[in-house]
Amino acid sequence: MEVTNLPRVVGSTRWDTMAFLTDERRPNWVRRLGMRLAAPKVGVAARVAHTANPRARVEPIFGNLVDDAVARRLVDCDYLFLAADSAQARLVFNAMVHQYLIPGVQV
User: Fold this and answer.
1) C-alpha to C-alpha distances, 33 to 14, 17, 26, 44, 69, nearest whole angstrom
2) Whole-angstrom Cα distance, residue 55 to residue 63?
3) CB of 85 within 8 A of CB of 63?
4) pLDDT, tens digit, for every residue of 21-49?
5) Contact 81/97 with Cβ under 8 angstroms?
6) Distance between CA atoms of 80 and 58, rounded to whole angstroms?
7) Which of 49, 51, 94, 97 could bond to 104 as cystine, CB 3.0-4.6 Å?
8) In this predicted model, what pLDDT tens digit does every residue of 38-95 receive, in sequence order?
9) Kindly report the CA angle at 5 between 7 and 58, in degrees rounded to 5?
């Protein structure tokens, strides 16, 4: 998560972005640390899903959808939620939801 993601990611907070560490006024080493400690988008999505339904089974996968091993883990899912930054990942996602008839949404 980055501060610029806050308006687009439902349920995210400044704490998820480690905004107090990633502020541009901080030294570079502190900003790098903050970026490493920031919550991944999939972690925020899992937290929001569990808040909405504590019994929901959510498996956040932090990886690149373009990687074959990551994509293969998703073909048996009931629902896909994509939080990707690349056009290539979005294209693979679109192909998967159509080919395997898996409902999904992109953020």
Assistant:
1) 15, 11, 11, 19, 29
2) 24
3) no
4) 888 899 999 989 988 998 888 899 899 99
5) no
6) 10
7) 97
8) 888 889 989 999 999 999 888 888 888 889 998 898 888 888 888 777 899 899 999 9
9) 100
DSSP 26-79: S-HHHHHHHHHHSPPHHHHHHHHHHHH-TT-------S-TTSHHHHHTTTT-S-
Specify the 3-state DSSP secondary structure of 82.
strand
Residues in the chain: 107
Q: How far apart are CA 94 and CA 96, in angstroms?
A: 5
Angle at 106 between CA 101 and CA 107, to 5 degrees: 165
Which amino acid belongs to residue 102?
I
Structure tokens at 75: 């073909």
